[in-house]
Amino acid sequence: MVSKYLIIYNEIKEKVENGDIKPNTKLSSENELMKKYSVSRDTIRKSLNLLEQNGYIQKIKGKGSFVLDINKFDFPISGLTSFKELANKMGVKSHTILEELELIKPDDFLMNQLNVSKNSNIWKVIRVREIKDQRIILDKDFFNKKHIPSLTDDICKDSVYEYIEGELGLKIGFAKKEITVQKATEEDKKYLDLEEYDMIVVVKNYTYLDDMSLFQYTESRHRPDKFRFVDFARRK
Questions:
Q1: Using one digit for the tens of pLDDT, what is the confidence trace for 93-104?
Q2: Cβ distance 208 to 214 under 8 Å?
Q3: CATH classification of 4-67 is 1.10.10.10, yes or no?
Q4: pTM recorded for the entire structure
């Protein structure tokens, strides 16, 4: 016999998947759901917890449970893909907003991340990525000027990787990546449409040319409900 909380979970899940319950819709309260299904509060909470665990709803303290947009964008963990390439592959409306482009001297943090001296020159590029008219990615890129001698607004609004490979004739080799979940900063809140979310998925990239020169350090900060981070693994 299937548990009542699973029956309720599956019913709500199917309605979300079929579009009968739209993203950002507030679900009925626990009391209303108890009456509708003639079950205990504990049963309803088990159903809601399972819906939240599986990415169908977000419970917000004092406000209730809200349906998430389950049509997430696949973000490849392995491989090196520019935002322009990713957006083209997804076939969605996208736009890059260049917030900052300047040549700076590295602080202690950047000296460590890029393995450079304090006298080095670093391109700082801050870009906001819009997908379907929502600002959901904040990219903070730092390029070693030794390898990337010049950058312009137009290049940064289009594709830096396309410029590096096409115009500079350099070959991008590989990247080391770190993925963490962090509390949203004031900067995140300033640039992104976070709505009720106070957490950010941060992908840090250390990107190398094919001669093993580290030329880029990136913090790519993503709204957590919009992306599904995917990879392919094979057991050896």
A1: 889 999 999 999
A2: yes
A3: yes
A4: 0.69
